[in-house]
TrEMBL record:
This is S-layer homology domain-containing protein. The lineage of its organism: Bacteria, Bacillati, Bacillota, Clostridia, Eubacteriales. It comes from Clostridium aciditolerans. Residues 590-650, 652-713, 716-776 form the SLH domain. PROSITE patterns: SLH. Residues 1-25 form the signal peptide.
């Protein structure tokens, strides 16, 4: 009998793919019997002693919410309780609003439970609830709800807890998250944005996370307020807004990293040519003034762009000097000598080297480097507030890779005149250019020297405050195009004029295709703005110029955020004209079409859940497609968990397979062999159709019952066509029947019938579901 560990591995592979969708917003709920109906949004700074809601009252409110709406009762004798009185940072870093943050924790041999509830300290409204339960030593299982079923749960819950507010909301789909490994396979998250005068108000929303396995509400958030909303008088037209966005939100042709989901290579980086949105000009346009806004939505964007002139550029490139590799790698003592010299050049005398370490194949800096690193501290320092830092050099050349100095003691103290920086941005830019020439002369031919500076002016006591850090990020140029993952960055402390840090990320072996034949920028813009359409939206902004006394207001903007507070804008493959994700992979927009194809199917639920987990492919989906051997291997490997890093040390296939080592099927075959699903021998015809008994055999092997299935004389089958089953497969079919994996009709198994994707989906889903049912 297979161990629990074997079973756990299967679903752990799925659960480990979880990317939990956090509820970033704190939100609210109404308990009229306990709290005031008022919804104060701006109050004087308060302390715990004069909070309108006491700690004990907050706990009573939280417990009532949990019992009435989450069917969750708190017994204080069984939980550890922690209560904190904290600012509500939803209103800014200098928030005047405070919340009671209540946490209950329980740990025993069976499960761990953590419950977090936020209660507004003035209104007594519950603004956030999170309930997390994990079973010790057990995988939670596969989803029992489809996304549509989970949505029904969310709608029912919100209609109960916030009926009035929910009636004013619409569901916002965050298209930056696609299905498969990018989602959380154990939950579904739903964001509902408030609509006022047919306009989304991104600052007011409801958020619910539904557990896909239990069907319970895992988290809840609510943000609602009664701000004075601006009128729509004087708003610019949609046509004008569209044009402003096209003029301001630039698409830059550049190289982007391409991370192949079917491969894992730490040495050579593959790239794609893509049109990527430059969001330095912001994503919001003031709907009345028609000007791009800064990231606080407070003021028109104050942007400076600078670059070297023609003569300066010649001098910069003329400073090129190749870096020579040493005859042998640096020893620890030799490395420390070089690092001491660099620290003295950059930060001056008086630093001691400490804790030197060697890192082989360090990929942090954009390439697989062997590095020496050291911590350094100002002499005489004896506490954690010392002037200290970290330095890293290349062990094969001695070249600087990174140096950072940090001092917890704020140099912007009251004795400093914070309205007068000791260095201007332009002066810092010139110094940064000199630093690149001095420490990275081998890279000057491939550096984009153009820099953009966005001034964000804040005030304190009506005195404008300068930026505390001037940052410069010099991107790498490849074939004249920027490669966004490689750069040399230099930061200056504007108050002291000193270097804060220098960092180099530079890939040694970069595979960059030619950019000849790409689509035009205008075509890319048409594709981009056909998806990201600016729309009128209410948004919150800080109406106060004093950063220590923030006061929120509401502004009308045109935005491409579509009612969301955060939204990732995807780039476009410059050859195909298709949107790509963070990994450079073409975004799968097939899910809605897939859902239409399976609507009403007897196996709609199983297909929907497996597709949402990335186990089956939604592209060109056909309910009656007959499964090939390549399809079967891919689906079963996906069910167990595709881990490309495992391929790095996998042996070559001994299977007779006609495809290339670089193709998708070859990599899946390697993974199947690694998992023990497939023997590394014999012939493999990728296009051969698979029978029902062959598919069941492979699935039972996946579950770890292979040895048991091969036992002789212990299995009997009651199928009327049992004699048609290959004798060697009798045990596999019997185990599948015992686990209820198959969808049998008329007491027939039909072993020689070719299996379809619909039948296989049921088998795979039931196999994964049975693990939870059996307590594994």
């Amino acid at each position: 009998m297979t161990s629990k560990k074997t079973y756990a591995i299967i679903l752990t592979a799925l659960i480990s793919l979880s990317l939990v969708s956090p509820v970033y917003a704190q939100e609210t709920n109404k308990i009229s019997s306990i709290t005031s109906a008022s919804n104060t949004t701006t109050v004087s700074a308060i302390s715990e002693s004069n909070s309108k809601i006491s700690k004990d009252e907050a706990k009573v409110i939280a417990k009532k919410i949990l019992k009435d709406y989450f069917e969750f009762s708190i017994d204080d004798t069984k939980y550890q309780t922690n209560v904190n009185f904290t600012p509500d940072y939803q209103f800014g870093t200098n928030s005047k609003n405070y919340s009671w943050q209540i946490n209950w924790n329980s740990h025993d041999q069976e499960k761990d439970v953590s419950v977090n509830v936020s209660v507004d300290a003035i209104s007594g409204k519950v603004t956030n609830v999170d309930i997390m339960t994990s079973l010790r030593g057990q995988s939670p299982g596969i989803a029992t709800l489809t996304e549509d079923q989970a949505k029904e749960v969310a709608v029912k819950f919100l209609n109960k807890i916030n009926p009035q507010e929910f009636s004013q909301c619409k569901l916002i789909k965050n298209d930056s998250m696609s299905y498969g490994w990018k989602g959380d396979p154990t939950s579904y998250n739903f964001n509902y944005c408030r609509i006022v005068n047919s306009i989304p108000f991104s600052g007011n929303f409801l958020n619910v996370t539904v557990d896909s396995i239990t069907g319970k509400i895992r988290s809840y958030g609510f943000r609602w307020s009664d701000y004075q909303l601006p009128s729509q008088d004087g708003v610019i037209s949609q046509e004008k807004a569209d044009q402003i966005f096209k003029d301001n939100l630039n698409l830059d042709l550049k190289y982007v990293p391409y991370r192949d989901e079917y491969g894992y290579d730490t040495k050579t980086k593959t790239t794609k040519v893509a049109y990527m949105p430059d969001m330095s000009s912001g994503v919001n346009i003031d709907a009345k003034e028609g000007k791009a806004l800064d990231y606080n939505n407070t003021s028109p964007l104050d942007k400076k762009v600078t670059d070297l002139d023609e003569n300066q550029k010649k001098s910069f490139i003329g400073s090129y000097k190749p870096v020579q590799k040493l005859d042998k790698e640096l020893t620890s003592n030799a490395a420390e000598t070089i690092m001491k010299s660099l620290i003295k050049e950059i930060y001056g005398d008086g630093y001691d080297i400490q804790a030197t370490s060697y890192q082989d194949n360090n990929g942090i800096y954009g390439s697989v480097l062997a590095c020496w690193s050291s911590h350094f501290t100002k002499k005489g320092a004896n506490n954690d507030f010392a002037d200290q830092g970290q330095i890293t050099i290349d062990s094969s050349t001695g070249q600087l890779v990174s140096i950072n100095r940090f001092n917890p003691v704020d140099k912007f103290g009251s004795n400093n005149d914070s309205s007068k920086p000791k260095i201007t941005w332009e002066q810092a830019y010139s110094k940064s250019i000199d630093i690149v020439k001095k420490y990275f002369p081998d890279k000057v031919k491939d550096i984009d020297t153009k820099q953009t500076y966005i001034q964000r002016t804040e005030y304190y006591n009506n005195v404008p405050q300068f930026d505390r850090l001037y940052g410069f990020n010099f991107n790498r140029l490849v074939n004249g195009l920027s490669y966004q993952d490689d750069s040399i960055s230099v930061n200056f402390n504007s108050s002291t004029g000193e270097i804060a840090n220098i960092d180099s990320r530079w890939t040694q072996d970069l595979n960059a295709p030619s950019a000849n034949g790409v689509i035009s920028k205008s075509d890319a813009q048409n594709i981009f703005f056909n998806t990201y359409k600016p729309q009128l939206q209410y948004t919150l902004f800080n109406a106060s110029k004093d950063p220590k006394n923030s006061e929120l207001g509401v502004k009308l903007v045109y935005s491409v955020l579509d009612g969301l507070q955060y939204r990732q804008l995807n780039g476009i493959d410059a050859f195909k004209g298709k949107f790509i994700d963070y990994n450079g992979q073409e975004i799968d927009n097939n899910f809605e079409a897939f859902k239409s194809k399976i609507k009403g199917s007897p196996v709609e639920k199983e297909l929907s859940i497996l597709a949402s987990l990335g186990i089956i492919d939604t592209k060109d989906f056909d309910l009656n497609k007959q499964i090939t051997r390549a399809d079967l291997v891919k689906i079963l490997v996906n069910a167990k968990g595709y881990r490309p890093y495992m391929l790095e040390k996998s042996p070559d296939l001994k299977i007779n397979y006609s495809g290339s080592k670089n193709d998708e099927t070859y990599k899946y075959l390697q993974m199947a062999v690694s998992y023990g699903m497939l023997d590394n021998s014999g012939d493999f015809n990728a296009n051969e159709k698979v029978t029902r008994e062959e598919a069941i055999k492979a699935l039972v092997k996946l579950l770890g019952y292979d040895k048991l299935a091969q036992s002789k004389g212990i299995f009997t089958l009651s199928y009327s066509d049992a004699s048609d089953i290959t004798p060697a497969n009798t045990g596999y079919v019997a185990i599948s029947k015992g686990l209820g994996l198959t969808n049998d009709t008329d007491n027939k198994f039909r072993p020689k019938n070719q299996i379809t994707i619909s039948d296989l989906a049921v088998n795979v889903y039931r196999a994964l579901n049975s693990l939870r049912s059996n307590g594994y």
